[in-house]
Write a structure and sequence with these properties.
single chain, about 170 residues, 2 domains, two-stranded antiparallel ribbon, seven-stranded antiparallel β-sheet, Arc Repressor Mutant, subunit A, alpha+beta, 9 strands
Length: about 170
Amino acid sequence: MNLSLTQEKILSNLIYLYNKNDRPLQASEVAQTTGLNVGTIRNHMQILKMLKMTKGITGPKGGYIPTSKAFDGYSSNNKSNLNMYLNKTKLEDVTICEIRLNPQDNSTYSGSIKIIGNMEYFSVGDTVTIQTPDNKNNNTMIKGIITGRDFNSNTLFSSPIEILSK
């Protein structure tokens, strides 16, 4: 199913906030993390509800929740077992969805990292490290400096990127 960039952004932030807070979320809460207008959130939530990606809960403690169909779209990435570090601090509430590497020459790369989580954590110039779990002292690390951020697609851009293996 093809969602617009805005719908992907809303849905990924809804999943992030729902995982973090374990309760239905108001449109205003989703608007805060996405930087979008509350009306825009509500309009897109109606479309996401028709697509069975979200569900509206009525009442004083109501709001929006992602459905199992929404989680299915991200499930393979939510269990990626990749650890992400920002300036040597492990991030517990960021999920890596996709890593793209672009070769620059024989030994250097640039790339992009699509995440589910709060993009406000990251600034240009920060060091990001992605590490696979240690399996009998055999793990891989990807390390780079953030050169840009795309808030619409929750993507970080990095260059140069080092790939280190033990």
